[in-house]
Automatic annotation (TrEMBL):
Signal peptide: none annotated. CDD domains: 17beta-HSD-like_SDR_c. It comes from Streptomyces avermitilis (strain ATCC 31267 / DSM 46492 / JCM 5070 / NBRC 14893 / NCIMB 12804 / NRRL 8165 / MA-4680). GO terms for molecular function: oxidoreductase activity. This is Dehydrogenase. Belongs to the short-chain dehydrogenases/reductases (SDR) family.
Length: 270
């Protein structure tokens, strides 16, 4: 089947931000292809066609992108939303665990882009929207691996945008702050926990739980994604919600002010 409506492919669309994004794009007039690792368990969403996909698999990424193109005739917008959290001190996190986070959060994005970009470039149009985080540009103590993965997405996405803009394709960033999605409950915990970090890690866990509970609704992030997908003159970055907008200002403060603020926010001593 082909369609005259714009087509969006959203990874990680079975819950949280991805689910709300899929629904918001449908409401904005898009045909939406959503992915999840096991869509047989997903409650059907009107206007969303689901495909099974694990973004760590080169073979599955290639197959699903081709299936979406064959079904709808094109892909106008790619939303790289699939991701995983990671909580724990650097010394408590094994390299294998860190590699697992990067395989989803960074290389998963790269796999999707490598498959979708030639199609967009050949058509002379398209938007790639990558989900970053405010922790993609500010320090993230006790979430260093996750923060590093989002820093990587920031650099990758900005560089990509400069490469493909001349071909009618844009690579854009959406930067949420704390979002009420159960992020902390689903994040990987340290696989080599150390007693020396236990007290501070427990403090961080409590602060994170409170921040997530008070965080933005996923629909707030979805709205920013739809704006990025539809803006006539798109911006490189979109802050998702008022908290993210305030955090963005930390880019411009003196280093010592940021340092003090990070330590105060995370109840760090010394």
């Amino acid at each position: 089947m082909t369609t005259n409506r714009p087509v969006a492919l959203v990874t990680g669309a079975s819950s949280g931000i991805g689910k709300q994004t899929a629904l918001a794009l449908v409401a904005a007039g898009f045909e939406v292809a959503g992915t999840g690792r096991d869509t047989s368990r997903v409650t059907p969403l009107q206007g969303v066609t689901f495909f099974d996909l694990d973004v760590v698999s080169d073979k599955l990424v290639t197959a699903v992108v081709q299936q979406v193109i064959e079904r709808f005739g094109r892909i106008d917008v790619l939303v790289n939303n699939a991701g995983v959290g990671s909580i724990g001190a650097v010394e408590e996190t094994s390299l294998a665990q860190a590699q697992g986070v990067f395989d989803i959060n960074v290389f998963g994005v790269m796999r999707m882009v490598k498959e979708v970009l030639p199609h967009m470039r050949a058509r002379g149009r398209g938007r790639i929207i990558n989900l970053s985080s405010v922790q993609g540009f500010i320090p993230a103590p006790y979430m260093a691996v996750y923060g590093a993965s989002k820093h990587a997405i920031e650099g990758y996405s900005q560089s990509l945008d400069h490469e493909v803009r001349q071909y009618g394709v844009r690579s854009l960033l959406v930067e949420p702050a704390y979002t009420n999605t159960g992020f902390e409950a689903n994040s990987a915990k340290p696989d080599s926990p150390l007693q020396t970090y236990a007290d501070q890690r427990h403090v961080f866990d409590r602060l994170m739980t409170e921040a997530i509970k008070a965080g933005d609704d996923p629909a707030v992030v979805a709205k920013a994604i739809v704006t990025a997908a539809t803006d006539t003159k798109p911006k490189l970055r979109y802050a998702a919600g008022p908290m993210a907008g305030r955090a963005r200002m930390l880019r411009f403060v003196p280093a010592w002010v940021l340092d003090k603020q990070i330590r105060s926010m995370n109840k760090l001593t010394g």
